[in-house]
Structure formats: structure tokens, C-alpha cells
Amino acid sequence: AQSVSQHNHHVILSEAASLELGCNYSYGGTVNLFWYVQYPGQHLQLLLKYFSGDPLVKGIKGFEAEFIKSKFSFNLRKPSVQWSDTAEYFCAVTRANDYKLSFGAGTTVTVRA
Amino acid sequence: NAGVTQTPKFQVLKTGQSMTLQCAQDMNHNSMYWYRQDPGMGLRLIYYSASEGTTDKGEVPNGYNVSRLNKREFSLRLESAAPSQTSVYFCASSEKVRGEQFFGPGTRLTVL
Question: By the number of CB atoms within 10 A of the CB, which of A44, A96, B76, B99 ranks highest?
């Protein structure tokens, strides 16, 4: 079974700071990659996804992620965070043509006003 | 469209009791999933149903059973609840392989 590692458990930032969350996976074949966000008290929502093509993917709310195949990484970035970005962020990976998503443990992001 | 709905939202059980968590989707998706979310462990797949009439085990199936009642509904049953099953349970659905999964609001279950 593949594993997904998120390097930071909890990140605390001030508004307007830049955010980067790390994600690495262990599977060596073709993968599909996702970042989900869970705002307090809400269910998971998709931020962005990568299937193929341009390795720099843009998602909602100003988030982007870069797939670096040689590093088995799919890091999430946002140049300037807002208080409303306070949430838990999950990286998820599935093999091409597989139904099953493997999730990382999640990173809690707290943005201070 | 309601998307993915789950009932109940909260439940408290005693050890040994049984219950069924209900999930329905109105997006005409083929695939449905049950996950549990525990602190520091992300989401772990319990069971999934690739299409109506099929179910398969995920990463942590022990202590659970599922039924894909029809294309819309996918239920999760705990036959004899244990404190280790205290968790938040999420149902999800996707249109097809590789597709984005859409999640329900979750059920917070406590087993005493």
C-alpha cells in the first residue's frame, strides 16, 4: 500500500504570509494527486487536483500546487494567506485507474489576524 | 442538488450495540466510499463500492459491513460497536475512476 506523508502537523501564520505545505508519496507508478481542505465544522472540499499535463496546478481560492515527479512530491502553496484560510489540509493520492484515495495525516493551518 | 448526505450527524453507542450509518448521493455517481477520520491519521478507507452491486474492503474494514442498496445509497453497519470505533465517519462518491470524490458532512460517533 502506498503512503502519503505530510511534513507539518500544525502551521501558524500571520495574515499576508506565504504558505507552503509539503506532501510526499511513496508509490512509483502513475498517480493522481489531490489537495482537500476541511474548514472548521465543515466537510472536505477539493482545492485542486493533478492528473496529467502541466505540473503546476492552480486551484480555488488562490492555491496552487506543483507536482515534481522526481521527488514524489505535490506541495501546496499560497502567496498570501487570509484568516479565512484557517483549516485542515489533506494531501491525497491514488493510482491511475484506482478507486481508492490514500490520505496524508493532514496539516492544521492557523492564520492569525 | 444536496450532494452527499449522511444520517445521523451524531450518535452515542454503548459497547456491543449495533447501528447503521446511512449515506445517499443525488449526483448519479457510480462509486461510493466510507472513510473514518481520526486525529493525526487523516482519512482511512473502510469500504468502497466501485459500482452498484459491488463492494470491496479498504484499509480498515474489520468490525464493519456495508450494503450498496442501489445506485444512490451506501450504508455502513457496525454489528457490535467497540470504543476503538469512536471516530468521525465520512461518506464520499465519485462519478468514475480517477474522478474527484465528493464528501458528505460526516457522522460523529462515540462508543462508550
Answer: A44
User: Residue B105 has which C-alpha cell?
Assistant: 458532512
Per-residue model confidence as pLDDT tens digits over A45-81: 999 999 999 999 999 999 999 999 999 999 999 999 9
Q: Enumerate residues 6+ apart whose C-beta is below 8 A from B96.
A: B30, B31
Task: For chain B, report the end-to-end CA distance as a whole number of angstroms.
Answer: 36
C-alpha cell at B16: 456491543
Cell numbers standing for residue B107: 457522522
Provide, as residue numbers in chain A, all residues whose Cβ is less than 8 Å from the Cβ of B104.
Answer: 43
- A chain contacts of residue B105, beta-carbon cutoff 8 Å: 42-43
Residues in chain B, pLDDT under 70: 97-98
Give the model confidence (pLDDT) of A25-55 as tens digits. Answer: 998 788 999 999 999 988 899 999 999 999 9
| pLDDT at residue B98, rounded to an integer | 65
Sequence-distant (6+) residues with CB within 8 A of A106 are: A6, A9, A38, A88, A89, A90, B40, B42
Contacting residues for A48 by C-beta, under 8 A, at least 6 apart: A34, A35, A57, A58, A59, A60, A63, A64, A65, A76
Provide the pLDDT for residue B39: 85
User: B47-56: long-range contacts (C-beta < 8 A, 24 or more apart)?
Assistant: B47/B76, B48/A99, B48/A100, B49/B74, B50/A99, B50/B97
Answer yes or no: do A9 and B40 touch at CB < 8 A: yes
Q: Say how far apart CA A29 and CA B62 lie, in whole Å.
A: 28
- Exposed / middle / buried, residue B54 (Cβ in 10 Å: 0-12, 13-18, 19+): exposed
